[in-house]
Amino acid sequence: MDVTVNGASHLLDPDAIAIDLIRDGLGLTGTKLVCGAGVCGACTVQVDGVPMVSCLLPCAALDGRAVTTVEGLSGEHPVQRAFAAHDALQCGYCTPGFVVEAVAFVDGWRAEHGDVAPERTMIADAMAGHLCRCGAYLGIYAAIAAACAGEHDEPGPRPARIEAMEKVTGRARYTTDVRLDGQLEGVIVRSVKAHAVIRSVKAPDGTTMIDLLPEDRTVRYAGQPIAAVTGTDRAGAIAAAAQVYVDYDERPAVLSPEQAQRANAPLVYADKAERKTAPPSGEGPVFPAKWNGNVRGPSSMSWRSGTADRRITKARESNDHRLVDATFSTAVQVHTALEPHACVAHWHDGELTLYVSTQAVGVVAESAAKRWKLRDDQVHVVSEHTGGGFGAKTSLTNEMVAAVELAKAAGAPVKVALDRSAELTAAGNRPGTRSAVSMLADAAGNLAALTLDVHSEAGVATGGQVAALGRLIYGTAPRRMRDFDIITNHPPGTPFRGPGGPPLAWALEQSVDEMALRLGEDPITLRRRWDGNPKRHALYDWAAALPAWTQRLTGSQTGRFRRGVGLAAANWMYFLDTGTKLELTVEHGVVVARCTVQDMGTGVRSVIDGILRAELDLPPERVRVEIGRSTEAHGPASGGSRTTPSVAPATQDAAERLRTQLKAGSGSVAGLLDKADGTKVVGKRKRDRRGYVTPFGMDNLSMGRGFSGAVHVTEVEVDTRLGKIRATRVWGGVAVGHIYNERLARSQCEGSIIQGVGFALYEQRHVDPATGIVLTDNLEDYRIPGIGDTPEIELHFHQEGWEHVQGGGVGLGELATLGVAASVGNAVRAATGWRPLELPIRPDRLLEGLRP
Amino acid sequence: MSLDAIVTAAGRGGELRAGGTDVTARQRVGRATAPFIDLRAAAELHGIEWRADGGARIGAMTSVAALVTDPQLRAAYPALSLTAGGLATPQVRAAGTLGGNLLQRNRCWYYRNPRFSCFQTGGEGCPARDGLHLYSAVIEQGPCIAPHASSIAMALLAYDDVYADVHGRGRVPLADVYGDGSDPTLDHLLAPTDVLLAVELPAPTLGEAAAYHRAIGRAEGEWPLVEAVARLVIDDASVITSAAVAVGAVAHTPLRLPEVGAALVGQVATSADLLAAAALATERCSPLPQTGYKVDLLRDTVLEVLERAADAVCDIPPHVRRAD
Questions:
Q1: Which residue of B has its CA nearest to A193?
Q2: Counting Cβ atoms within 10 Å, is residue A417 exposed (0-12), middle (13-18) or buried (19+)?
Q3: Contact B260, B252 (CB under 8 A)
Q4: What is the pLDDT of residues B253-262, one digit of tens each?
């Protein structure tokens, strides 16, 4: 049996799987393995010109056929140019699959129809077998339409995302693509029990195995790492892992929030010492709180809470119609970065090199140095491209520990990459929540009192802060804001894009909407009165003028399909890493920028490049950005939307310093570079005017002055017969000041909105109630939005109000997703008269809600 | 490998493999193990033949995409083509086959998870019944509540006199391939050594209109909550002269609903008639705690396909034609 791959002939093992031949056998790593179930399309190749998923294709099916991978395309196919030109990608991990499919579609389309753009729905149907977690779908629509119309037959200008061509050609190398000489594969052995003390772990003689259990030898969720073993390849490592015998001393487990709160429920953490080992579910410090069995809290951020409580109690007694009482819930949402957590560890001459998929190169380097007792200069962390993170890749995680320990034990480089099941089970999630809201307006329609009790369900993790965020919006009316954790034997929650924000908005913004209905008032009018944030006021003005808002239907509708428009506001903090530095060196006539920062698809590489070229007036070939490795120039972790507001001002400062150093005056410095080899400057992140809210940074995180604001207006179409909700159009207004790279900022916001739609309508982790095993450990059952679920999106950037900040702008990657689900909820209410309380608004829930 | 060699190999054990999309997916989660016996090389399983009586014999290795795009099949059996065009994704339709689709295993998230044991995997009990069964069957047939996964089987059951040609056994009525769903260890009743050669369809019905609907939460690429297909013939006086309805994702087997068809024949296709007939579908339901929504959804999905078939708005979008 043989096959031709990109023109070269190869022998086949009929029972091998095509993707293993392509990636491991032939080293064609542009083809990505993501879901292994034929759902996401990242592994798509053409077989005799027809796109197929290579993860489900036995090599037997390739006999005598010609396979084309992304590497086999010209590299300058109009589709590749179009993807780059329309920024139809972010992290780039799904991109080769999309490109391979789109090439077949576009070529076929043009042959049949000529150079005309197909309708949006045709593109959606053709791309239905692909998923992009970053949510680059609008760019993908535009790119495919433009390529069909023949707009990219010639090379175009440089794309807004400077590494775009690497990503559309499959050349971009991710951690999962790294293969060092002599590299072994490691696999983590995970608990199949939700709660047990591990008596012993045994592997056959000759197996390299390391321990991953905590000190108390207790596993507290199914999927928790126990040990890790190596093999010469992945199959060998999996076989070795299957040989490991784990002796479980099973303990009673807590497998639902209801069970956790019952009297005499078993305890997840038995005593104070055990409680201290609970991982944090959020970012920043976990405030102390008292424990009551499996419930921890409250942790309060209140203001005149007694007054708030009294007013609400009184209003309830008098059946005051200006009291909104409701309980909202949100499901556990899983990050689902398409590149799994992955690490290749390599010990050499007492030094450690780590290739990692991370959004925090610097944090990983520091933590690794500390953990393995190395000097900073003995640890090298590399993350050239990161295939998505969304908050789940901000620390030294257990696949890194496993790889490093295994590499040490085996005396060879070791790769550990999570499979999709582990990624969707134990690699982090946004905790579920249950939020009881009471909101009272006074006779003048002002906010009189607000109480919010939020129970976060982060499995074994603690520190949920949802209600606390409600302290920061809608003025200074009395309020009692309390956060509780309900601890269960479920996998731990972790930070996820705007931790706490979307669940808060789901409860708060629907309550505000309900209050507007009670008061017979336009929801924008009410928010203008309640909300003191001037930046959001500018967004209210913008939203109020949208035709979709002024012409929205407000009365009750009949008929099968109903449309509604809903609005939600959001508030977020401005974080930065004040210690950020950026180093510029002139090397062979090129200005090389270095910083310990990483690009997980957000585009900081391009932001740095753009600033340098503008400030120094340089052509593209005179600037090179080297990020994604630990260097002497400290840079931020990409969390808390702090990357751009930290790095961009440091880049500006570095550019000014270089100009001074070169004695360049104004104009281009290009002419001076050839004689300036070796010139080096370090730019710093200069202090904001009036400093920061936090007097000093904690873990390199400082909170700056001012709150960013967003307003989302969403239109939905509800099929009341078959229970389907479509978000048809979304308008996103974002007030973060100066936008450094508009195209990439748009991509971030579009992706934020699409993830918000997923949170609103589809995404829900399900856990088996009897065993604690995650059932949605695959991309069929864990449902993220596809291209056909993408609304049309219009964005508005309000760029004023941040003049006190260096560079004039702050981050937006979290802000832009916070209110989306709430706006969907309000839109569903407007369309149907039924207010959804539970997320996601699944078809069965909608049908139940609409039942007469 | 010749058909004889395949049959011999199958007799020694191993799993037959057509396009491999389902086998490979199960291989990845430990629900299928080598050896695999590839059917691709057997010429007997390929091709579409048109018999003298006007009916078609479709080789088991015919790709799902070909069911969508073959012009003669589309014209003759619109219910089959529409259904095939609505399942899975373009890449899977291109690689998957008719035979593989008919004989695929169920999608229950307990069955597909190697950490669980159930009737289907040689164990006892059904963890879905006591656990999470949001996507399970709403029509009780037996101890296993995993819905059948084959949309194409459902579409084929909407035809009378459809046969599976099984090597060594001859023509088996397709409904007998699935039985009554009472055996919880199986998704179909063919033996591991039975090679499905082809499916035989009766001569096309003149003037029929068909519709398929897959009720899902997202736009595309999802296993159905409920699916239904309808075939109607309506005469010049707007009277329904022939009607067939089949449904999927609601029972352990794909199901024809003869009672719905019978209620429609002789009726004028008013919306009240269609609704009354569709409502009959719910009489078979006995929902579990989490599948109650499927009762109304079944009725309304049947209503959806009846209305669309009655309106004869049932062409296949042109973009689907690409993948042949």
A1: B115
A2: buried
A3: no
A4: 999 999 999 9
Q: How open is the CA angle A452-A455-A458, to the nearest 5 degrees? A: 145
Q: What is the pLDDT of residues B196-251, one digit of tens each?
A: 999 999 999 999 999 999 999 999 999 999 999 999 999 988 899 999 999 999 99
Residue B147 at interface with chain A, using a CB cutoff of 8 Å: no
Q: Which of A51, A421, A726 sits opposite B91 (nearest CB)?
A: A51
A-interface mutation test, from B1, B24, B118, B133, most A Cβ less than 10 A away: B24
Match 């910083």 to its residue by tokens.
A595
Instruction: State pLDDT tens for residues A366-405.
Output: 999 999 999 999 999 999 999 999 999 999 999 999 999 9
- What mean pLDDT, rounded, does chain B reach? 94
Residues from chain A that touch B146, judged by Cβ atoms under 8 A, are none
Interface residue B38 vs chain A (CB under 8 A): yes
Helix axis angle, A137-148 relative to A95-113, nearest 10°?
30
CB contact under 8 A, A722 and B132: no
Percent of chain A with pLDDT over 90: 97
* Option in B89, B109, B217 nearest A842 (CB): B217
Q: Mind telling me how many Å the CA of A174 is from chain B's nearest CA?
A: 23
Residue in chain B closest to A100 (alpha carbons) equals B91
Q: From the CA of B52, how many Å to the nearest CA of chain A?
A: 33
Q: A179: which 2 tokens?
A: 């293969």
Residues in chain B within 8 Å Cβ distance of A761 = 217-218
Confidence band (pLDDT; 50, 70, 90) for B318? very low
| Nearest C-alpha in A relative to B22 | A56
Q: What is the mean pLDDT of residues A74-97?
A: 97
Measure CB to CB from residue A51 to each of B94, B115, B300 and give the nearest one: B94
Q: How confident is residue A644, by pLDDT bands cut at 50, 70 and 90? A: very high
Round to whole Å and give the CA distance between A806 and A376: 29
* Amino acid present at A500: G
Helix ranges (DSSP H) in B46-95: 64-69, 71-76, 78-86, 90-95
pLDDT at A284: 74
Neighbouring C-alpha atoms within 13 Å toward the C-beta of B310: 23
Alpha carbon distance B237, A284 (integer Å):
73
Is residue A307's pLDDT more than 60?
A: yes
How are the residues of chain A apportioned to helix, strand and coil, as percentages rounded to the nearest 5?
30, 25, 45
Residue A267 CB partners (closer than 8 Å, separation 6+): A254, A293, A294
Q: Do B322 and A108 touch (CB under 8 A)?
A: yes
The band of B77, judged by pLDDT with boundaries at 50, 70 and 90, is very high
Shortest distance, CA A661 to any CA of chain B (angstroms): 57
